[in-house]
Amino acid sequence: MAFEEIENAFIWTCEGCGKIAAFPSSDxxxxxxxxxxxxxxxxxxxxxxxxxxxxxxxxYCQRCRHKRQSTNILDRPLRTVK
Length: 82
Description:
Elements: E1 3-6, E2 9-13, E3 20-24, H1 28-37, E4 41-46, E5 55-60, H2 62-70
Antiparallel strand pairs: 1-2, 2-3, 4-5
């Protein structure tokens, strides 16, 4: 899980390296904006073709964001377009 809300904290985990960013559980959007200012990437992936289709958020720290964006486009997984 890339994001978790527990009793007293919001916790984001980078899906690339496992880096953890934890904040007190107050003002979710301010905390999210702070991570974006630090260079984190929040990416929404639409899942299609399944009955239980939904949306999945992916989170990457600044280092992994750079690695992900530097990857050759031919090495990236293909996505289905509606």
